[in-house]
Amino acid sequence: MPNLRSICAIAGIAAGIAWAPFALSAGAANSPIPNFAPDNQTGWVPLRPEGDEFIPPESGAGPVMAEKGHPYVPNNSGQPTYRIADLSNPILQPWVVERLKQANDRVRAGQVPFLPHERCWPGGVPGWEVYTRVRPIYFLQTPQKVTIIDELDHQVRRVYMNVPHSKTVKPSWYGESVGHYEGDTLVIDTIGLNDKTPVDNYGTPHTGQIHVIERFRLIDGGKTLQATVTVDDPGAFNKPWTAVQLWKRGVARPLEELACAENNFSFLNYDVVPIPEASKADF
After folding, report:
1. Per-residue pLDDT averaged across 172-201, rounded?
2. Contact (CB, 8 A) for 185 and 174
3. Which of 35, 153, 191, 210 has CB atoms 3.0–4.6 Å from 260's, for a disulfide?
4. Alpha carbon of 11 to those of 7, 178, 225: distances in Å?
């Protein structure tokens, strides 16, 4: 049986074969479709040291950030700190503020905060974009589908191209994503998310009404991948808000095997939030 590295290499080659005529025809029509996977070894890692943190927009409503006076400092960037959310963000509905206050209080009391990737939880959308600041993400692009793979626990998103959303969507960890290209931008529209994942690493919750639109494009001469994310959830937020994430080209290597599933019972004493287990298949 071939190993994961071989499978990924084959998949990358296959994606390249399927992608090539599509890209050329688009170019002939003066529509520069971005190629996020020029080979089977291009992985993208967060550009900034605090890559597990959203970047606020230049103007308008933005994501939850650190409380003033309590900045978030990641490892290898000085004395690390745990996150304490700014509860004054006007996007937050009262029940969300209360949920974040409980998380803040636990941190102030000296407890270790819950982070989805440290407990092997799925990242969800848009939380997957700040899921880890170390491991790369990979793209496989074909005319029918764009597959995004996070190396950490091999979490996979499937974006079905140029099709409408289903009439009825069963809620799931990553929801239903459909996409299309607008010039040099990949636009992904996601609905049907369950309410089990936070939208960020502060633990900001959402409801099943959440609707996420992501716009991916290459900037800086193709050296940087930019995602602009818009989140609309009338059950949790007073208004839609926007955030940005940036990735750079990582070390050129195929996807590596990195499972996050076993030997984590009582990990960091998170007995109240065990590793998710499915009693039956979602589909």
Report:
1. 96
2. no
3. 153
4. 6, 21, 21
